[in-house]
Amino acid sequence: MLEVAEDVLGCLISHDGVTVRLTEVEAYNGAADPGSHAFRGRTPRIAVMFGPPGGLYVYFTYGMHYCANLVCGPDGAASAVLLRAGAVIAGADLALARRTAPRGGQGRDRSVTHRDLARGPARLTQALGLAAAHNGIRTDAPDSPVQLSRGAADPGAPQDVRTGPRVGVAGPGGDALAYPWRFWLAGEPTVSTYRPGRPPRPRAGRA
Question: pLDDT (tens digit, 9 = 90+) per residue, 175-197?
Answer without folding.
Answer: 999 999 999 999 999 999 998 88
